[in-house]
Amino acid sequence: MKMKKMALGLLIVGAVSTTALAYAATRPVDIVSKLTGKTVETLYQERAQGKTYGTIAKEAGKLEEFKNEMLKNKKEILDQRVKEGRITQEQADEIYNSIKNNMANCDGTGSQRLGQKYGVGFGNSQGKGMGNGAGLGQGMRRGFGNGFNRR
């Protein structure tokens, strides 16, 4: 009986770790690093000086590629949340279409705050941490918050 509980615990930890790794592999910092060839540490330093990842990508002539990768990343996160039952497909479609429309005006400064009004928290934490916020209020829990702000 004790072995079954231990095996079940390991299975759950493995599943959670796999989900966390999937999210971690698509952080904005990783996307910019891949596009620009800069290290994550260098990018963190630039962020600490006030630059957005979009600005860094724009300076490297990679803004359009960055926007495309970010849109793809956000779609994957939304699809996963639908699969997990955290949001409906209709909610995911509304968020995705809003983000896609806003990205058309994206200039790399981060002023759009894409997805923030929905409380989905797509990652305003410089890629540090995996905040499992409930999406409370006006995007109070940033990072990769697992909630949807239902009003």
Provide the fold topology:
Elements: H1 2-24, H2 28-36, H3 40-48, H4 53-59, H5 63-83, H6 89-103
Helix pairs in contact: 2-4, 2-5, 4-5, 5-6
Q: In a nutshell, what does this entry contain?
A:
With 151 residues, the protein is mainly α. It has 6 helices and no strands. The radius of gyration is 17 Å and the shape is elongated.
Describe the structure.
It is a single chain. The termini are far apart. The longest helix has 23 residues, at 2-24. This protein has one domain (19-104, 114-151). Helix content is 56%, strand content 0%. The model is unreliable at 7-11, 13-25 and 124-151 (pLDDT under 50). It has helices spanning 2-24, 28-36, 40-48, 53-59, 63-83, 89-103. It is elongated and about 40 Å long. By secondary structure, it is an all-alpha fold. Keywords: Signal. Residues 1-22 form the signal peptide.
Structural class from helices and strands? mainly alpha
Write down the secondary-structure element order: HHHHHH
N- to C-terminal separation?
44 Å
Average the pLDDT over all residues and give the rounded result: 73
Share of residues in helices = 55-70%
Instruction: Give the strand tally.
Output: 0
Shape: elongated
Poorly predicted parts: 7-11, 13-25, 124-151
Radius of gyration: 17 Å
How much strand?
under 5%
Number of domains: 1
Number of helices: 6
The major pleated sheet works out as: none
Signal peptide: 1-22
InterPro entries: DUF2680
Region (Disordered): 131-151
Keywords: Signal
